[in-house]
Automatic annotation (TrEMBL):
This is Lysophospholipase L1-like esterase. One of its GO terms (molecular function) is phosphatidylcholine lysophospholipase activity. Residues 42-246 form the SGNH hydrolase-type esterase domain. PANTHER family: SGNH HYDROLASE-TYPE ESTERASE DOMAIN-CONTAINING PROTEIN, THIOESTERASE 1/PROTEASE 1/LYSOPHOSPHOLIPASE L1. Gene3D superfamilies: SGNH hydrolase. It comes from Kribbella kalugense.
């Protein structure tokens, strides 16, 4: 998905594209937000990018809601990439002058949704119910390491300035709703749910160890009285417009009123 920038008010951050001398590569320079402005960067996978939704993805919806609540100018830089895993996101943040590095450096608010694709190689094993033993132990070990490094990199890029970091979990790391019921046996659906809960636990633990806020998406989706299928795109794997709107509202509720972050824990 090509990163998109949504301007929600005038007089906001100026994005300038320049060509790197000798290399032919483009480098994006981003001015820091001015007093009273809020700059949001959304980092993550296809959920963040809005795959298969044909709608405004949750980062843009969140920006609109935040602007309405605060009355201040808000910009949203949605850098979600379909198929991205935690290793790939870390590489983006570590790459000098990458869009992720540039946008994160200037962001007051960071939305982070990552981890589901770390288990993609075991999709069939899990959803078929054949994932015997701990077939994803190595992936979880790497996810824990990557999440800590991603958060540390965000702090470094922000020069430890106050930053609101909102880390979402998942309602399911694989398909859910009617699609899952048609394609997978009960044992596979149970295994997928268990993997999701474990993934969310890892994300929440990473948030607690830092100054980030864990945002629970699982409960709102799974407890949806109208059936979770009504929140999903036809592929059963991504949110539809209603699902994205729900995520945006949950993120807004988790956002501090004054957008001030506590000092980074642990130094």
């Amino acid at each position: 998905m090509i990163p998109t920038l949504r301007r929600l008010a005038t007089g906001l951050i100026l994005i300038v594209l320049i060509t790197a001398l000798g290399g032919g590569e483009t480098v994006r320079e981003v001015d820091p937000p001015q007093p009273g402005e809020v700059s949001v960067v959304a980092l993550g996978d296809s959920v963040t990018s809005g795959s298969n939704c044909n709608c405004s993805a949750f980062p843009q919806m969140y920006g609109d809601l935040l602007h309405a609540r605060t009355g201040v100018p808000v910009t949203v830089d949605n850098l979600g990439v379909g198929g991205l895993d935690s290793t790939g996101l870390l590489q983006q943040l570590d790459q000098s002058n990458s869009p992720a590095e540039q946008a994160t450096t200037s962001a007051n608010v960071v939305l982070l949704t990552i981890g589901a694709n770390d288990f993609g190689d075991h999709h069939d094993d899990v959803t078929s119910g054949q994932c015997t033993g701990d077939c994803v132990a190595d992936e979880f070990e790497q996810l824990d390491v990557n999440l800590a490094r991603i958060l540390n990199r965000i702090h470094v890029l922000r020069d430890n300035l106050p930053t609101t970091i909102l880390m979402t979990g998942y309602w399911n790391v694989f398909e859910d709703g009617d699609v899952a019921k048609r394609q997978y046996p009960a044992s596979g659906r149970i295994a997928s749910d268990q993997l999701t809960v474990r993934t969310n636990t890892a994300i929440a633990a990473a948030a607690r160890a830092d100054d980030a806020t864990y945002v629970d998406i699982y409960t709102a989706f799974e407890d949806n009285a109208a059936d979770i299928t009504t929140l999903l795109a036809p592929d059963g794997d991504h949110p539809n417009a209603a699902g994205h709107a729900l995520i945006a509202r949950i993120l807004l509720a988790a956002t501090p009123n004054h957008l001030t972050a506590s000092p980074r824990q642990g130094g």
